[in-house]
Amino acid sequence: KQHEQWLSIVPGPDGKAVAFTEPFTIKANRNIRIRLEAPVSNSWLAIGGELVNDASGELDAFDAEISHYSGVDGGESWSEGSTSTNIYIGSRPAGTYVLRVETEGPARPAGQDSMSVRASITQGVFRVSHFFYGLGLLGVPWGILMIMALRFEHLRKEGSDAGSPWTEFFDDGDGDE
Fold first, then answer.
1. C-alpha–C-alpha distance, residues 24 and 3, integer Å
2. Checking CA distances to 33, which of 62, 75, 88, 104 falls within 20 to 30 Å?
């Protein structure tokens, strides 16, 4: 992990709060994962954030929500949601960055004036979805070539004495042609 920090969130009367991480360094040409975790229980927390380049002021904005609910219904326990979320950002120029987090929601533990959100910034993470996108892109040309080859074989055998494999497959067996 490049950087990990607990942010103390102190909501105002409107339920909103803003917090900043300490400055941290980002290396060039590596994707970025921002993982946010909050101790929500039967509640939610809306998060608007920005990854800000300290030198240029350039920013990448994102929105996320953390929500986790659980209970018992008819003797069966259930749960949905998660206490964390991941945000992915493409590679950014090398430099010093700050993460700005703005929260809104009722997700403050009962009897406490503040709550904590853990922000973890990691670079160069493997994304499984990109692997499958690449596999799909590589598979499309092979699929087209296969269709073209089958079409060629169909046309080649259509006029021959052997007949087309498609004709044999779809032949209804009554002898009429």
1. 6
2. 104
pLDDT the model gives residue 67: 93
Q: Which residues pair with 35 in a beta bridge?
A: 86, 120
For residue 114, give both structure tokens. 């503040």
What pTM did the predictor assign?
0.69
Sequence-ordered list of residues with C-beta below 8 angstroms from that of 85, at least 6 positions apart, any chain? 35, 36, 47, 64, 65, 66
| Helices within 58-127 (DSSP H only) | none
Q: How much is the average pLDDT of 103-123?
A: 77
Tell whether the model's pLDDT for residue 120 goes beyond 60. yes
Exposed, middle or buried by CB within 10 Å (0-12, 13-18, 19+), for 101? Answer: buried
Query: Which region holds residue 29: left if phi is over 0, alpha if psi is between -120 and 50, else beta?
Result: left
Give the per-residue pLDDT at 69.
94
CA distance 142 to 148: 10
Which residues are CB-contacts of 38 (< 8 A; sequence separation ≥ 6)? 45, 66, 83, 84, 107, 115, 116, 117, 118
Please say whether the beta carbons of 120 and 35 come within 8 A: yes
